[in-house]
Design a protein that fits this description.
The protein is mainly alpha-helical. Among the domains are: about 35 residues, no CATH class; about 80 residues, no CATH class; about 80 residues, no CATH class; about 70 residues, no CATH class. Helices cover about 45% and strands about 5% of the residues. It has 21 helices and six strands. Helix 3 runs antiparallel to helix 5 and helix 18 crosses helix 19. This is Reverse transcriptase zinc-binding domain-containing protein. It comes from Liquidambar formosana (Formosan gum).
C-alpha cells in the first residue's frame, strides 16, 4: 500500500481480505516480498539454511563421491523454489556456489583444501568433463526464460498482468526498458532474445504479425529488413496472403524474399490456430531443461566419460578416476607444479623415484604388477606397456 494510505482504509481492507497489515520486507509462502531492488539481507536466510546443512554433514565420514551426491540432489535443489520466483543478486549466487565448492573439496583440520578445478568447469555434464552439477546462474536464467515464455504464450493471470503493466499494446519484440520497472521485469526482458532466437510460428489462420513475428522460420522480417520508421498499422500474415503481399510497408525486395521462403518452406494458410513452438524441443513444447541447455556454455565432448561413469562402479571410485583423468590427484609431482618445494620419492618402489601420476599408475614396478594381475580379467595387452602408456597420455591430454 501507499505510505499515505489512511489507517481506516487499511483496517477495512484487512477485515475484508483477512490479511494482516505488515511493512515490507515480509515472507509470504516461503518467498520474501520486498520493494525495489533486493538487498543481500533478504536472501541471507537461504544461505544460513545451506550452511546448516553442510555443518551437519561435516561431522559424518563422507567420501568425495558422497559429497557429490549431496550437492547434486540436496544443496543444488535448495534455491530452486526462490529462483523460480525472483532474481538473485550475483553475490548471493557466488556465496552459495562457494559453499558448494568448499563442501565438495573438503577441509583438513579446519582449513579449506585446495580447489584443483574451477567450479565453472565442474558445472557441466559428465560427457563434457564435468560432474553434472547444475550452475545456479544458468538455472536462474532458465527460469527467467520460462517466465518470458509464459508472457508470449500463456493466458494466466500473472502473464496478463505483466502485459498490461509493461507491454500494453506494443509488440513484444519492440518492448523497451524504462525507469520505474521492477527488477524482475528487467531480467525477464533481458532474456527476450533467447525466445526470439529459439522459437517460431507455425502458420494456421495467419493471425500473427507479418513484420515482427518469426513465421518464416528464419527470423522476423523487421530483423532482415529494418524499417526506416514504425509501421502505421499492424498487418497480419493472412492479410499479406490475401493481397499477395501488396501491402503498405512491404517493398518489392521484401516481397521477393517472402515468396522465396514460402516456396522453400511450403507455408500455407490453414483453418487452425497459429502455433508458437519452441525449436530446441523435438515436440515444440517449452521445458526448463531445454532452456538450461541453451543457456550453458557447451564444452568439447569427452569420449572417456563412459569409462568411469556407470552404475556398477561406486561413485567415489568414479570421482577419483575423474580427478585422475584431470591430473588433480595430489601426488608429489602435482603439488610441486603448484610452486610448493618438497622432496619426493615413491614409497611403492625400491629406488624411490619421483612420485608422479604416470609412475604410480603406469610405469612403476608396483603398477606393472597390478596391471599384470588383471591382464586376463580385462584382456589388457600389458606385455607392451608402451600401448598402455600411450592410451593414458592421450586421455589425459584430451581432458
Amino acid at each position: 500500500m501507499a505510505k499515505d494510505t489512511p489507517m481506516a482504509r487499511i483496517n477495512i481492507i484487512a477485515r475484508s481480505c483477512g490479511f494482516q497489515h505488515k511493512k515490507l520486507p515480509i515472507t509470504y509462502l516461503g518467498a520474501p516480498l520486498f520493494s525495489g531492488c533486493p538487498s543481500l539481507l533478504i536472501f541471507e536466510n537461504l544461505l544460513v539454511k545451506i550452511r546448516q546443512k553442510v555443518v551437519g554433514w561435516r561431522s559424518k565420514l563422507l567420501s568425495q563421491g558422497g559429497r557429490l551426491v549431496l550437492i547434486r540432489h540436496v544443496l543444488s535443489s535448495m534455491p530452486i523454489y526462490l529462483l523460480s520466483a525472483m532474481h538473485f543478486p550475483t553475490s548471493i549466487i557466488k556465496d552459495s556456489e562457494r559453499i558448494f565448492s568448499d563442501f565438495f573439496w573438503g577441509d583438513s583440520n579446519g582449513k579449506k583444501r585446495r580447489k584443483w578445478i574451477a567450479w565453472e568447469s565442474i558445472c557441466c555434464p559428465c560427457s563434457e568433463g564435468g560432474l553434472n552439477i547444475r550452475s545456479v546462474t544458468n538455472v536462474m536464467k532458465s527460469f527467467r526464460i520460462k517466465q518470458a515464455w509464459a508472457i508470449f504464450t500463456s493466458d494466466s493471470l500473472w502473464a496478463r498482468f505483466m502485459i498490461l503493466k509493461y507491454v500494453k499494446s506494443t509488440h513484444l519484440s519492440q518492448v523497451q526498458f524504462h525507469t520505474g520497472c521492477s527488477n524482475l521485469w528487467w531480467h525477464i526482458l533481458k532474456v527476450f532474445p533467447f525466445i526470439f532466437d529459439n522459437s517460431c510460428w507455425v502458420i494456421g489462420r495467419g493471425e500473427v504479425d507479418l513484420l515482427f513475428d518469426n513465421w518464416l522460420g528464419s527470423g522476423t522480417l523487421c530483423s532482415v529488413f529494418p524499417p526506416s520508421q514504425p509501421p502505421v498499422r499492424t498487418v497480419s500474415v493472412q492479410e499479406g496472403f490475401d493481397s499477395d503481399f501488396q501491402v503498405d510497408g512491404i517493398s518489392s525486395t521484401m516481397r521477393d524474399f517472402i515468396c522465396r521462403n514460402i516456396a522453400v518452406s511450403s507455408i500455407r494458410l490453414r483453418d487452425d490456430p497459429d502455433n508458437f513452438i519452441w525449436k530446441p524441443a523435438t515436440d515444440g513444447k517449452f521445458s526448463v531443461k531445454s532452456a538450461y541447455n541453451i543457456c550453458r556454455l557447451r564444452r568439447p565432448y569427452q569420449s572417456w566419460w563412459k569409462l568411469i561413469w556407470f552404475k556398477r562402479v561406486p561413485i567415489k571410485i568414479s570421482v577419483f578416476s575423474w580427478k585422475l583423468v584431470h591430473s588433480v590427484v595430489s601426488v608429489d609431482s602435482v603439488i610441486q607444479a603448484c610452486d610448493v618445494h618438497l622432496a619426493s620419492w615413491c614409497h611403492c618402489c625400491e629406488h624411490h623415484q619421483v612420485e608422479s601420476l604416470h609412475h604410480l599408475f603406469i610405469s612403476g614396478n608396483f603398477a606393472r604388477l597390478v596391471w599384470r594381475h588383471f591382464e586376463d580379467v580385462f584382456c589388457i595387452p600389458t606385455r607392451n606397456f608402451n600401448t598402455v602408456s600411450q592410451g593414458w597420455e592421450s586421455t589425459v591430454a584430451v581432458a
